[in-house]
Design brief:
The protein is about 35% helix and about 20% strand. The protein is built from five helices and eight strands. The strands form two sheets. The chain has a five-stranded mixed β-barrel with strand order 1-2-3-8-7. The longest helix is centred in the middle third of the chain and has 42 residues.
Length: about 210
């Protein structure tokens, strides 16, 4: 009678799939299909991280790429010559990669838009309150300020009536009168002025002291 096979943990096998010096990159939470090129040589990294991170396996958008790769690997396992596989799937793989990338981008935009609306709804409960923030972005009209909780709002330059700002087109507004700078990474205390749940827009005004 054959003995029942002993179970084992994948966690004890996966680390052997790559050299130790590369393992940290494979399990890094920063790795995702969206950060990798849609074309080019197939890397073992997505396969390895798929075992470690259930997040990748659960994402519906990535089921199509998984199915596409499964078709190719199935033919390879069946012994189909590589030349025939290349001829059969080269165009298909390019189309699948392009379609998957476009879907991924649309999903990311939808997710960000939804997050903005949720943040705006949250901030409607804090109108008039003051917070310390960090300048996270600049435009010709004003600056974006991010709070410690991740909420980001816009401060229009019109709320600095005594300043005459010059925008360098990149990261900094400089007041030509006082020399004051509003630049990315700089600190600014703000007051929550408005929040529109429908658009996800949040408006701040500077909370200047005296």
């Amino acid at each position: 009678m054959k003995k029942a096979p002993k179970g084992f943990r994948f966690s004890s096998v996966v680390p052997k799939a790559s050299a130790p010096k590369h393992w940290a990159k494979l399990v890094s939470p920063n790795i995702s299909p969206s950060s990798a090129p849609a074309s080019g040589p197939i890397s073992i990294a997505p396969i390895t991280t798929g075992i470690v991170s259930s997040e990748i396996a659960r994402t519906p958008i990535r089921r199509y790429p998984d199915t596409a790769i499964h078709r190719i690997l199935s033919d390879l396992v069946k012994g189909v010559p590589v030349s025939k596989i290349q001829k059969k799937y080269t165009e298909f793989a390019a189309d699948a990669a392009s379609e998957s990338s476009q879907c991924e981008v649309r999903a990311m935009r939808a997710e960000r838009d939804a997050e903005k609306c949720y943040m705006a709804e949250y901030m409607t409960q804090h109108i008039g309150e003051e917070y310390d923030g960090i300048i996270s972005g600049t435009t010709a009209r004003g600056i974006f300020v991010e709070l410690a909780n991740g909420v980001e709002g816009f401060v229009n330059l019109e709320y600095f009536p005594e300043c005459r700002f010059h925008f360098d087109g990149l990261t900094t507004h400089t007041d030509e009168i006082s020399g004051r700078q509003l630049t990315i990474g700089g600190a600014l205390r703000i007051q929550v002025a408005a929040a529109d749940v429908a658009t996800g827009m949040i408006d701040f005004v500077p909370a200047e002291k005296g």
